[in-house]
Amino acid sequence: MTPRTLTELAPSMTARSVALSLLLGARPPRLHVRELISAGDLFEIAASSMRAALSRMVAAGELTVADSFYSLGPRHVDRQASQEAMIRPRRRPFDGVWEQRIIVTAGRQASSRAELRKLFAVHRFAELREGVWMRPANLVGEDLEQIEDVLRFETTVRNSRTLVRELWDLETWASEAKLLLVALSSPGHSKERFMAAAGAVRHLCSDPALPDELLPEYWPGDELRWAYEDYRAEFTQLSMNNAKDLQ
């Protein structure tokens, strides 16, 4: 598969997505309107458009506002916690056991099939063939709940490395991670660096979090996590300094 570009890896940068990307990555998730408008400037989003988007988000309960500081609403606070867990999967030693889920009913509605695929992807399973999903049993706290008409097994395979190559395109994932790393390492607060940070979150959520012994010799997963955390720390410090100036 051809690796995606930075534009393809990052979410579409509308006023709403810029504001959410900033707040979901902020610690704490609270930013002054000037910071949100400044981020919008990178994508030629007018201040009036950003203010209008923020007002709509407050009205919809996505954000709260007090003294010109915007914070995540309850739903997005939960999303932030989930995102934090997704980008830092906890692994345990691999003993050769694989998790397997088999969908035993045919004829599901398209919407139901899409929801199942999304659920399996969130839990880092990959589809071996139609209705059969697998992954190494090496994750902590990622137990997939019992689903109606889905059978659950634990199994071993003859060659785990061969199966990994069949289930995941690790070469493409690594190539895209390297592209994000280069953009994240650029100096200053550029449009490209902002896009890379947003893209890194998405990319890390799709990291299969495989055992070390099943990964290629060079795997940039942890390096991308560290680069993203460095970006967040830098942004958080800048935001704290700005908040002091605004008080």
How would you sum up this structure, described in words?
Residues 190-240 form the Transcriptional repressor PaaX-like C-terminal domain. Pfam families: PaaX (PF07848), PaaX_C (PF08223). Residues 15-72 form the Transcriptional repressor PaaX-like N-terminal domain. There is one protein chain. The protein is of the alpha+beta class and 247 residues long. It folds into three domains: 6-74, Arc Repressor Mutant, subunit A, CATH 1.10.10.10; 84-88 and 169-234, Methane Monooxygenase Hydroxylase, Chain G, domain 1, CATH 1.20.58; 97-156. 52% of the residues lie in helices and 15% in strands. The chain contains ten helices and nine strands. The chain has helices at 6-9, 15-25, 33-42, 47-59, 74-87, 110-122, 160-167, 170-184, 191-205, 221-246, and strands at 30-32, 63-66, 69-72, 90-91, 98-103, 126-129, 132-136, 139-140, 150-155. A four-stranded antiparallel beta sheet has the order 6-7-5-9, covered by helices on one side. Strand 2 and strand 3 form a beta hairpin. Helix 8 packs antiparallel against helix 9 and helix 9 crosses helix 10. It is globular. The termini are far apart. The model has no long low-confidence stretch (mean pLDDT 91).
